[in-house]
């Protein structure tokens, strides 16, 4: 089951009603930049937890109807938000946006590792 509006309602539950466009704007992302690529670890973990728990609930409850699935996406996001609030965490929309995407960080790390490998300081298994 793949409904195009599902990620949006999941975000709306987790981000207190903000949709994908709102979050994209709030993070000052350019067209083509993906929200998940510009999250720090806390925000990314909250989103991955939301996504995994939504998938689990949809599967466990055998949800097939689009309206019910939309509700599950929203409610799981809202529950994750409630848990964050309950433990005194920072709401995801208030977390800082990293300056670099996860892909940029990965490329830099690989370049650093390759440079060390060329100097014989480490071995890379490529």
Protein topology:
Layout: H1 6-14, H2 20-26, H3 41-60, H4 66-86, H5 102-118
Helix pairs in contact: 1-3, 1-4, 3-4
Query: Structural class of the helices, strands and pairings?
Result: mainly alpha
DSSP helix fraction: 55-70%
User: How many strand units?
Assistant: 0
Q: How many helices in DSSP terms?
A: 5
Cα gyration radius (Å): 18 Å
Q: Mean of the pLDDT scores?
A: 90
Main sheet summary: none
Give the oligomer, counting copies of the same chain as homo and different chains as hetero: single chain
Written overview of the protein:
By secondary structure, this protein is mostly helical. The chain is 59% helix and 0% strand. It has five helices and no strands. The N and C termini lie far apart (36 Å). 19% of the residues are buried. The mean pLDDT is 90.
Can you give me a brief rundown of this structure?
This protein is mostly helical and 126 residues long. Helix content is 59%, strand content 0%.
Which labels suit this protein?
5 helices; 126 residues; elongated; 0% strand
């Amino acid at each position: 089951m793949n409904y195009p509006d599902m990620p949006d309602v999941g975000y709306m539950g987790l981000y207190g009603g903000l949709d994908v466009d709102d979050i994209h704007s709030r993070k000052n992302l350019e067209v083509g930049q993906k929200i998940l690529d510009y999250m720090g670890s806390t925000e990314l973990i909250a989103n991955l937890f939301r996504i995994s728990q939504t998938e689990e609930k949809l599967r466990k409850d055998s949800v097939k109807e689009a309206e019910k699935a939309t509700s599950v996406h929203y409610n799981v996001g809202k529950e994750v938000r409630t848990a964050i609030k309950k433990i005194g965490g920072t709401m995801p929309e208030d977390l800082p946006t990293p300056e670099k995407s996860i892909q940029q960080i990965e490329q830099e790390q690989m370049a650093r590792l390759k440079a060390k490998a060329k100097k014989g300081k480490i071995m890379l298994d490529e």
